[in-house]
Amino acid sequence: MLALSASACAMPLGLTQAGTIVSSDIDEASGLAISRLNDKVLWVHNDSGDSARLFAIDSSGKQLATVNVEGVKSIDWEDIASFTYHNQSYLLIADIGDNQTQRSQYQLHLIKEPDLSQLHGNKLLSVKPSWSMTFTYGDGAHDSESVAVDVAKQKILLLTKRDKLPILYELPLIDPALGQTESNSANNLAANSTKQFNRQAKKLGEIAPLPSAMLDYTSIYTWIGFAGKPTAMDISADGLSAVVLTYTHAFYFTQTEPGDWLTLFSSPPQQINLPSIRQAEAVSFSQDGRSIYITSENLPAPLYKVDLKAYRTQF
Questions:
Q1: Residues near 38 by beta carbon (within 8 Å), at least 6 away in sequence
Q2: Which of 68, 81, 80, 79 is nearest to 123 (CA)?
Q3: Where are the beta strands (DSSP E) in 104-178?
Q4: Are the C-beta atoms of 129 and 73 separated by less than 8 Å?
Q5: N vs C: which end of the chain shows fewer Cβ within 10 Å?
Q6: Could you give the 3-state DSSP secondary structure of residue 315?
């Protein structure tokens, strides 16, 4: 009995709790991204209902700074991605949530990542996006909570949540470093203005059902039909791995060389079990891609770290 009890309380393979988010400002964490510029820093934002702002936290969950994004409305921010391009660190904010599938358009906002070493004690700053993209889906409205950036292919990936099978879409990553706009009106904007783009997301196809939690009959998410529904995703900096988060599991996909994302997402992933988390909606690779961070909505929010070494050895 004692052995069984200890086993039931054990943390899942490779998982430790790095810290806890307790700041009242971050009461509904919905997106998480590792900093590419600041050591041991992650960026997080709230779900719908908050103003257009980001928070820097350290790897223990402590709030370090607040960043207001000027000239932007937050309708339903659901995910954030970080990446380095032409030696510049960027954050991509995805305003893509649509629980009722009734929005006519969605937005992405790209900002240069703030350098926290230059704050000199200031914990509040403001930034303007380098560009903002309004986009639509050719087949109507979709609810999505997952965005990732493939720098090598200069693509933005989106994965829908509420469809019978998750659908993978892509958009172009407009080159902010070289100022490529493909738009005469954008070329005429003032240098300090945010470039605006309009695009239609390209449908890549449905992905295979995540092997998900259908056997986890004790989970409320199974009973309400949300088992296996993507709530966040990320791509490693080397472009070889991806992680997709659901309410009950994380799924780790990896390849030996860059390939087709639809094919990879339709292949069997490594399943990462999670402890009981209330609304796990945020995931990010670490800077070196050897681990992932996961957190959830509602305070106090645990900040988990998963060492991927154990899952790589299973191939």
A1: 56, 113, 115, 116, 117
A2: 68
A3: 106-112, 124-127, 131-137, 144-150, 155-160, 167-172
A4: no
A5: N
A6: coil
Tokens standing for 136? 């639509």
Query: And the tokens for 144?
Result: 């999505």
213, β-bridge pairs: none
- Structural tokens at position 299: 């305070």
Q: How many CB atoms lie within 10 A of CB 14?
A: 16
pLDDT (tens, 9 = 90+) of the chain, 315 residues, equals 333 333 345 788 999 999 999 999 999 999 999 999 999 999 999 998 899 999 999 999 999 999 999 999 999 999 999 999 999 999 999 999 999 999 999 999 999 999 998 887 889 999 999 999 999 999 999 999 999 999 999 999 999 999 999 999 999 998 766 555 444 333 433 445 688 989 999 999 999 888 754 445 445 555 445 667 999 999 999 999 999 999 889 999 999 998 999 999 999 999 999 988 888 999 999 999 999 999 998 899 999 999 999 897 554
Q: What share of the chain is helix, strand, coil (3-state, %, to 5)?
A: 10, 45, 45
Q: Which residue has the tokens 């490693």?
A: 236
Any residues with CB less than 8 A from the CB of 237 and at least 6 apart, and which?
Answer: 36, 83, 84, 151, 285, 287, 288, 289
> How many angstroms separate the Cα of 287 from the Cα of each of 46, 86, 98, 211?
22, 17, 30, 27
> What single-letter amino acid sits at 299?
L
